[in-house]
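Record filed below.
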Amino acid sequence: MQLNHAQRELTLKIVYYGPGLSGKTTNLRHLYARARPEVRGRLLSVETRDDRTLFFDVLPVFFSSARGYNVKVKVLTVPGQVVHAATRRIVLRDADAVAFIADSRRSATAENNQSWHSLLKDMRENGLDPDQVPVIIQFNKRDLPDTRTDEELEALRRRGREPVVGAVALRGEGVCETFHELLQAAWRRLDAEANLTRNIGLGEEEFLGRIFSHLDLEGTTLRGRYGAGASGGGAA
């Protein structure tokens, strides 16, 4: 988190981590498509010829609070390939919350586990305590054969402390829900540490509401809480 009282700016950093081709970039592209143009920046992406993200994607989401603070949420992905380990550590630096995007297929278990252990190592090397910095697990590709069952995901939820979200990111399913879990967890931790509600007059309800009221929430479980949001606002 970066808080500049003089310039009345607050910046949060959210990082999507996971093995190659698990759906990190797809998550960002769907968030971009669902966001109104006035609250989103450019989606920057560098890709190789085989369509894998080489460095990282960046999606800034921003708004002005009722107290006049400019709030920006920087959303980044890391490259999943093993060869880009150094880049992953750099991108992960100073993250306020992390989404771990896993492949739901049983055949991807070993790769998921390897990436998960890399995440914990990279967090510690960046001075991020995995017990303190929120991590949300998204099990993506729920539409493919050989995926873990809903019962298996529920068992994982009960066994671990990290929230677990099922998703089919190619269809946008679970994308907004994962993003909401990330932002809510990040806000609660930062508010507990820096008392943002008192110090800048921005509470959790306004923080989340300002973002999700500008996202197209049609077909998501968040519509009942925030309304339809920016219905049709994804076209830019």
